[in-house]
Amino acid sequence: QVQLVESGGGLVQSGGSLRLSCVASGRTFTDYAMAWFRQAPGKQREFVAAITWGGGRVEYLDSVKGRFTISRDNAKNTVYLQMSTVRSEDTAVYYCAARRLWVETTEYQYPYWGQGTQVTVSS
After folding, report:
1. Which has the least CB within 10 A, 17, 56, 114, 119?
2. 16, 46, 37: which is closest to 116 by C-alpha?
3. Region of residue 97 (left: phi > 0; alpha: psi -120 to 50; beta: else)
4. How far are the Cα atoms of 23, 74, 75, 110, 123 from residue 48, in angstroms, in the given order?
5. Rounded to whole angstroms, how far apart are CA atoms 118 and 95?
6. pLDDT tens per residue, range 42-71
7. Whole-number pLDDT of residue 22
8. Would you put residue 42 in left (φ > 0), alpha (ψ -120 to 50) or beta?
């Protein structure tokens, strides 16, 4: 089992920045690709970003490319999502997810999930 705990959410003004963190425990962190998903009110959960165990490959949702950056610190068992130039449409609950080995962009391929952290962007 892998346990994931997100933090760093909150209220941010449009155009501002926020950094989310997700700490993993329970298994060897470097065996896992890590991802961020989000779910806005009334919408389905959607893929945001993912990173391979070594950071050599990253994937992003088109609408966040150039604004969000995913990274990881394997020594700290932590994955980050740096959010910049945020928009009102970025308002959502953000979830951290893990799967063994390779990056995928669909939620059903991730067996491990955190509880989520709320991000609210005010205009």
Report:
1. 56
2. 37
3. beta
4. 18, 20, 24, 13, 21
5. 9
6. 999 999 999 998 888 999 999 999 999 999
7. 97
8. left
User: What is the distance between the alpha carbons of residues 100 and 90, in angstroms, rounded to a whole number?
Assistant: 27
pLDDT band for 26, please (50, 70, 90 cuts): confident
Tokens standing for 54? 């070594």
The amino acid sitting at 52 is T
* Cα 69 from chain centroid (whole Å): 9
- pLDDT of 27 > 80? The answer is no
Q: Write out the two tokens for 91.
A: 């308002």
Q: Which amino acid is at 3?
A: Q
